[in-house]
Write a structure and sequence with these properties.
The chain folds into two domains: about 1-45, no CATH class; about 50-100. The protein has helices spanning about 1-10, 10-20, 20-30, 70-75, 80-100. With about 100 residues, it is mainly α. Helix 2 (about 10-20) crosses helix 3.
């Protein structure tokens, strides 16, 4: 994703191609075929005068299965879920601060 964003910042033509035809553009850059059961939306968020808020898909934790590597990390005392939660809280607090100062 970093490569795609970097290319979009450097080339207006590439950015337009990515926004108008994201599947073909991403497949061309990555060399990988994307799943056909998912929709890809590329939103040009380069306007610095606009604050964008993305509502992510809700995760169904009841059906979430951890890999062996993830289970080992948790058993070893590393809790990536808590780290991700803390990051989410931090981002949420930052958004609240920004919203209160607009």
């Amino acid at each position: 994703m970093k490569t795609l964003a970097q290319k979009a910042w450097e080339s207006t033509a590439f950015k337009e191609q990515l926004v108008n035809n994201p599947v073909a553009t991403i497949e061309q850059v990555t060399g990988k075929t994307l799943p056909t059961d998912k929709k890809i939306i590329v939103d040009d968020q380069t306007d610095e005068s606009v604050i964008y808020f993305n509502i992510p898909a809700k995760v169904n934790f009841d059906e979430l299965e951890l890999t062996e590597e993830q289970l080992e990390m948790i058993a070893g005392g590393i809790t990536p879920v808590l780290g991700a939660y803390a990051l989410g809280v931090g981002i949420g607090l930052g958004l609240c601060w920004v919203a209160s100062h607009i």
